[in-house]
Amino acid sequence: MPSPQIVSVRPVLLSAPYADTHTDLEVLLHLPSGWRTTGLVEITLDDGTVGLGEGYLAVFAPRVFEKIVELVAPTLVGRDPQDLDRLCRDLAVVTGYWSLQGAAQHVLSAIEIALQDCRAQLQGVPVWRLLGAAANRPLELYASGGDAIGPQPMRDELDRIQALGIDVVKIRARKHQADKTRWCQRQAAERGISVAVDMTQNLAVPSQSVDDVLRYLDELLRDGGRLPVFIEEALGPQEIGHYAALRARVTGTRIAGGEIVTTSTELCHRIEQGCYDIAQPDATVIGGLGPTLEVFSAARRHGIDVYVHCWGGPVGMLANYHAALAGGGTVAEWPIKPYALRDALVTQPWEITKGRLTLPDTPGLGARLTPEIERAYAFR
């Protein structure tokens, strides 16, 4: 019996209301419409199987995402989706010269995820089992948010986190925001929740320095503050070489990062250089599920943890959770900000019990796209 072949590769842009247009700093600064876009790749096989993938690029440059998908689609049509390594190599040839590290990697990530979704469906297994996990097990979640601009919206967010049974929240705070961090710590502690801090320096030029971070931590400890559970993206792209020094000088907390890295080679090199206690790959950025598992392997060799980054749409979240389960991860990010697409695209409701997420046992990723969903969340 002949193998199924790819008959179409289609970019899909969907937009939906996101967070709170009046109280969320991310929305006020970057998404003033109150709508956020998710970019999908839909791969259809000649037997009717449909796989979905997601690339993070579409949040920021949706039309660029769309055009790159259209550019590379002919490389895939008519070919066997199970020939994954060869397909990914050929896509790298098409895009590597002008975007080996950058925008095209997000698109290749979406395609690789969609191919893995197809492969798992063809074999009748969930993606986590296709990737080598022997059994399903819950993933411990930490909540990600902390960008509310006033006390009451932040309390409301903490209440939602508490209701999910999650006991760690990651807030956003920069070097001058020790007061904000202390206030959030006090409010969170009343609910049995600990605080981690995303310092959002991953794209900052110039960024904070090692000394800036140490001064922030010293100030935080005054007046009853505590060290964060972990500190994420504390230094910018021009300071990558100083991460090991930061890690050596900080005690009592852990250093995390890696969410914007677009190749497993680079992130594994950072792990080897001692940059992180926690690596944070994102399958929608780094090339897909296979490269994410390479990061898990490097982390195991060097005795550090991996917390997958999950700040995109539901297909990307599912992809990262499947990778975490297959890679031996135990902790993953859960975005706490409301986003209508998060529930619309999953085949089964998210199963979160006492702060732990259990993935579906159904074949594939557990996502589906219908004409009704496309109409309801048309790109804008």
How would you concisely characterize the structure shown here?
The chain has 380 residues and is of the alpha/beta class. The protein has helices spanning 25-30, 62-72, 84-99, 103-123, 127-130, 151-163, 178-189, 210-221, 243-249, 264-272, 289-302, 314-327, 341-344, 371-376; strands at residues 6-17, 35-45, 50-55, 139-144, 168-172, 194-198, 231-232, 255-257, 278-279, 305-308, 331-335, 351-353, 356-358.
Count structural domains. 2
- Low-pLDDT segments: none
Order of helices and strands: EHEEHHHHEHEHEHEHEHEHEHEHEEH
Helical content class = 25-40%
Q: How are the strands of the biggest sheet laid out side by side?
A: 4-5-6-7-8-9-10-11
CATH architecture of the largest domain: Alpha-Beta Barrel
CATH topology of the largest domain, what is it called? TIM Barrel
CATH superfamily of the largest domain: Enolase-like C-terminal domain
Percentage beta strand: 15-25%
Shape estimate: globular
Descriptive account of the structure:
There is one protein chain. The protein is α/β, with parallel strands linked by helices. It folds into two domains: 6-125 and 370-376, Enolase-like, N-terminal domain (Enolase-like, domain 1, 2-Layer Sandwich); 130-358, TIM Barrel, CATH 3.20.20.120. Helices cover 39% and strands 18% of the residues. It is built from 14 helices and 13 strands. The strands form two sheets. It has an eight-stranded parallel barrel with strand order 4-5-6-7-8-9-10-11, surrounded by four helices. It is globular. The mean pLDDT is 97.
